[in-house]
TrEMBL record:
InterPro entries: AMP-bd_C, AMP-bd_C_sf, AMP-binding_CS, AMP-dep_synth/lig_dom, ANL_N_sf
Chain coiled-coil ranges: none
Keyword ATP-binding annotated: yes
Keyword Plastid attributed: no
Protein's UniProt name: Long-chain fatty acid transporter-like protein
One Pfam family recorded for the sequence: AMP-binding_C
Similarity-based family: Belongs to the ATP-dependent AMP-binding enzyme family.
PANTHER family per UniProt: FATTY ACID TRANSPORT PROTEIN 3, ISOFORM A, LONG-CHAIN FATTY ACID TRANSPORT PROTEIN
Any one Gene Ontology cellular component term annotated for this protein: cytoplasmic side of plasma membrane
GO biological process, one term: long-chain fatty acid import into cell
GO MF annotation, one: ATP binding
Top-level taxon of the source organism: Eukaryota
Keywords associated with the record: ATP-binding, Ligase, Nucleotide-binding
Length: 680
């Protein structure tokens, strides 16, 4: 009698066991996507076609009538988009834009953003994406550090460039505005600009060679304001395709674009997005997400790499469709998704929490969305978001524009719910030598890696022990994986650490505390600098936020450490947006919470958190301060600290834990604290 009928079930049982233990079926799609990205990168490197303009051209030929862009109810096919991009390229050449020149863009999300962006790529130029929320000093700094001589601005940003603002920041009008443009002259101190960047800005070479770095660098800046008339004019131009030589000599480390850091703790820095990362990363994401016959919806800003590179470009690589929203809004989010028949939504930061905080609707599950893709989905929101809106799958990503790597979690069930990354046995073995978690000295300022007294090497974390995530670099050629910040060697070098595992090695510092467990899951703990020390214990703001956020009255929690006179370390303070409040309101200020809510909150945090982690102060606010990508701001909150005058001037209310209850914190209370009459 044949043994085959018995062998098949036995083999199936063996595979099932190995798969459950080692995550084989989870790893294989990821490894396949990685292999596909590696092959694609090598192919484009050999043919010198890293520029994704060539991908648009190919899709325009093979899928000419398939929709690529949907924006505000209008659809553009790949062929229509390609022709439009060529016309914008023609216009940009008429403006004198040269190969490899950097051009700054200050646009809200729109079809025009994409035409300008790919129009620049079509002629071999490089865009610098300016955060459209910036104004004043931060805006001017971003433009100056890009070294752009041409800035393209949409109508919504026009007021930020009026003469009074420009004059205040050292710009002098050199030509009257005409045809939607204005020209300015300004000076920069060369001592703030690295030699390589000074050379690109056409400084007289003799002065550079002579070391005259203290002389002011005189530059011209042209600002062009886009309006309907200019857009119509561009569409009348011929769709001229420049020969390949206009885009050649691009390597995997060459700049594709500049994308700025958020600037939450300082002025924004231009991070170099390389062609290798842009090309290979988008191929990986499109394969990993299985983007086949999909419509991806994003309301995240295109100036951020998550929406532009992992959204628009990933969709392009597979010839699919992206529905673009102007800005995130509760009112437009689901209607635009339903109108476009979107099958996947893209999120960043607190987006899912804000959607969850809206009143329930009978239409919550009336859509075709099968998956959500993005980064920053909090553990306390994860399952509730899936359940309410009927989302089957979460594709969570952990990455940064300048980072040489990332984390990926394809989650269908509760096993990896809340994790920023997951690896099976095969993937773990593959990446074991490429990354590590390093123990940190939380008492140093700023926090520094702990090193062995005998070897001088970093101390590597055990399972479930928080540590800074680091990515391995080639110590002899850092730029192969990390291209750094444009024109800012100091900031670039600050992200590199040497002698981590062995003498002479080099790693990229992520600036984030993570932990990993034996099941291959990676968990976000906190940003380094956000974690604070209180009563000789380390407190994770992320973990406290998660615990506080589980209270039924809390819509959103943002936890940070505050300095307290006569006390070491930092005490915990939680900024809260609450659902209910007392009838008594403070004019146009934040309504006060009820005594019942305050009592319930105190009982909740004492139950959920160890004593040292319980927030001593609560700052009740009407609306949380966030970045343009829906990430929480802490910097300004920390600056105002526990000063009741500053907090109330912002329209908020401050409470503190006294006698086991949260009570209003007044100026008199502050005087007692300052006078040393209070011991926490």
């Amino acid at each position: 009698m044949s043994a085959l009928p018995y062998a098949i079930p036995a083999a199936a049982a063996t595979f099932s066991y190995l798969n459950a233990r080692h995550g084989l079926s989870y790893d294989l799609p990821m490894l396949s996507a990685l292999a596909s990205a590696a092959v694609s990168t090598k192919r484009h490197e050999r043919s010198d076609t890293f520029n994704l303009f060539y991908e648009l051209e190919a899709q325009a030929q093979s899928r000419e009538n398939h929709a690529w862009i949907i924006f505000q109810g209008r659809t553009w096919t790949y062929k229509e988009a390609y022709d439009t991009v060529l016309r914008y390229g023609t216009w940009l050449k008429s403006k004198g834009v040269e190969k490899d020149e950097i051009v700054a863009m200050d646009f809200v999300n729109s079809d025009t953003f994409i035409w300008v962006w790919f129009g620049l790529w079509s002629i071999g130029a490089k865009p610098a994406f300016i955060n459209y929320n910036l104004a004043g000093k931060s805006l001017v700094h971003s433009i100056k550090t890009s070294t752009a001589r041409l800035v393209l601005v949409d109508q919504e940003g026009r007021d930020k460039f009026n003469d009074d603002v420009m004059r205040e920041h050292g710009f002098v009008r050199t030509e009257l505005e005409r045809d939607g443009r204005a020209k300015y002259g300004f000076e920069m101190d060369q001592s703030d600009i690295p030699r390589s960047v000074r050379n690109q800005t056409k400084t007289p070479q003799a002065a550079v060679d002579a070391g005259a770095v203290s002389e002011p660098l005189r530059r011209q800046l042209e600002v062009v304001f886009f309006d309907d008339a200019l857009a119509l004019q561009i569409l009348t131009l011929p769709p001229t395709r420049l020969p390949n030589v206009a885009r050649d000599n691009q390597t995997r480390t060459s700049m594709a674009m500049l994308i700025y850091t958020s600037g939450t703790t300082g002025l924004p820095k231009p991070a170099i997005m390389s062609w290798g990362k842009c090309n290979g990363g988008t191929k990986f994401v499109s394969s990993w997400l299985s983007l086949k016959n999909n419509v991806l919806y994003t309301s995240m800003p295109l100036y951020h790499s998550s929406a532009s590179v992992l959204g628009v470009c990933a969709v392009l690589r597979t010839g699919n469709t992206i529905c673009l929203s102007k800005k995130f809004s509760h009112k437009t989010f689901w209607p635009e998704i339903r109108a476009s028949n979107a099958t996947m939504i893209h999120y960043v930061g607190e987006t899912c929490r804000y959607l969850l905080s809206a009143p329930p609707s009978a239409l919550d599950k009336q859509h075709k969305v099968r998956a959500a893709f993005g980064n920053g989905l909090r553990p306390d929101v994860w399952e509730a978001f899936k359940e309410r809106f009927g989302i089957e799958t979460i594709f969570e990503v952990y990455a940064a524009t300048e980072s040489p790597g990332g984390m990926w979690n394809h989650s269908r069930n509760g096993f990896s719910s809340g994790a920023i990354g997951r690896m099976g046995t095969l993937t773990s073995l593959l990446f074991a030598s490429m990354l590590c978690l390093v123990r940190m000295d939380s008492e140093s300022d700023p926090p520094a890696p702990l090193r062995s007294p005998s070897t001088g090497l970093c101390q590597i974390c055990d399972w479930n022990e928080p540590g800074e995530l680091m990515y391995k670099l080639d110590p002899n050629d850092i730029s192969q994986k990390f291209q750094g910040y444009f024109g800012n060697a100091k900031a670039t070098n600050s992200k590199i650490i040497r002698n981590v595992k062995v003498k002479g090695d080099a790693y990229f510092r992520s600036g984030d505390l993570l932990r990993r467990d034996k099941e291959g899951r990676w968990w976000f703990v906190d940003r380094i600098g956000d974690t604070f020390r209180w009563k000789a214990e380390n407190v994770s703001t992320a973990e406290v936020s998660e615990a506080v956020g589980k209270h039924e009255a809390v819509v959103e929690a943002n936890v940070y450490g505050v300095q307290v006179p006569h006390h070491d370390g930092r005490a915990g303070c939680a900024a809260l947006v609450l659902k209910d409040s007392a009838a008594t309101a403070m004019g146009d200020k934040t309504p006060l919470p009820s005594e019942q809510t305050l009592h319930s909150l105190a009982e909740h945090v004492k139950k959920e958190l160890p004593a040292f982690a319980v927030p001593i102060w609560l700052r009740v606010t009407r609306e949380m301060q966030i970045t343009g990508t829906n990430k929480q701001q802490k910097h300004l909150l920390q600056q105002e600290g526990i000063d009741p005058s500053a907090v109330e001037a912002s329209g908020d209310a401050l409470y503190w834990l006294k006698g086991g209850k949260y009570q209003r914190f007044t100026k008199r209370d502050m005087e007692l604290v300052v006078g040393g009459g209070v011991k926490l």
